[in-house]
Each structure stands twice: as structure tokens, then as C-alpha cells.
Amino acid sequence: MLKIKNLHVHYGAIHALKGVNLEIQSGEIVTLIGSNGAGKTTLVRTISGLISPSEGTIEYSGKELTRQPTHRIVQLGVAQVPEGRMIFQNMTVEENLELGAYGWKDGMKEEMEKVFQLFPRLKERLKQNSGTLSGGEQQMLAIGRALMSRPTLLLLDEPSLGLAPNLVQQIIKTLIQINQQGTTIFLIEQDAFLALEIAHRAYVLETGNITLEGNAKELLKNPKIREAYLGEINP
Predict the structure, then answer these.
(1) What percent of the chain has pLDDT over 90?
(2) pTM higher than the cut 0.85
């Protein structure tokens, strides 16, 4: 479904991504783990068309994304839930969801009902100003807004950031449900244990380089991963 080849990204003199190669198959949950500054958000923003690579290609379902504008990438079926949620706080929940359906209007109510099935609380808050929602509710809204574009690939950048543990578990259960309903998921997550627990496959990004990849459950057992990302000290 998604194939990234030899992707390089520069911020001036800073070489943020250094020849990244990555693939995601239809129906998978694939996670990317790494420390702060490793380049995770840069990769997601490059896939979404918000950053232009200096070298390399991104293909999605056989179509070249590398030089496509962001709105076209969304139309092709790729939606991003950004780090920090980035909802429009001065607009209502309903207005935020409607913006997620930008570019099409047919079946909007039906699509919104699907979001409410996943997040019933959003229906209760439909006319409420989004800036007054709790952090967990705002994350639900950010995910719901992305789903309104009918994506086949959902990119999530740090969805657990700043949330209480019980809310994190609720969000994760919903992501599994979204995947089971047919949406492929690319999960960027600092909580390595959480990410590896639910993913099918995983990549490890360190200072712009993919250093490990493989079955998520096998990587969860890897001593280097457990020491670097789970805080375990090996004898």
C-alpha cells in the first residue's frame, strides 16, 4: 500500500531523514518508534505532503505522492492525526468534523454517525466549542476529523501524548477497532511498549536512520529495544 524508497529530508544544513526505506501493507498496523528528535514527525509530515523531500520517492497504492499537494494526498486516501491534535478550538465539534470531509459532501451524515459509534462522547458534545473539551475528547475529535475524509491509510503522530492511562487504553482499543474495520494504520508513538503491543510490524528510527525492522512482538522481546525504549537494564 505505502512504499518509501531512499527518502532524504533536509532542514537547511540539518539532515533529518537519511535514506529511509519503509513499506506498509494493506490491513496492517505498523508502528514507528524512536526517541525525541529521531525524525518520526518529519517522516509523517513528508508522507502527508507538508514537507518536501530532497531525495527519494513515496508511493501509495501505485501512485506517486512525493510531489503531490496535501489536499490531493488526502483525496487519495491518506489522512493524518497530527501531534498535539491541532483541532480548531474556536469551532464546534460538528464544524471540526465537517472540515474533515472537505472536498466531498455526499454521505457526510452517515460518515459522522460512524465516528459517533467509535466516540459516542463526540455526539454528546456536538454543538460544544472544541476548545472546551478535555484532552482525551480533543484527541477523539482529531481522530474523528481524520476519519471523516474516508481514509484507507491513517497516520497517527503520538496519539497517547499527554493523556491519562485510562484514556490512552480507550484510544488504543478504538484504533484496533478502526483497523479491524479495514483502515490501515501507521502509528508513530514514543510509548514503545504500547505501540509494539498492538502493531503487526515495527520500524525503529534513530537520528534519521531505520536501524531495526520486523515483527512487532519479536522486537518487543529484543534486549536492545527493551533497554533503549522500555527502560530495562540487561545484565
Answers:
(1) 68
(2) yes
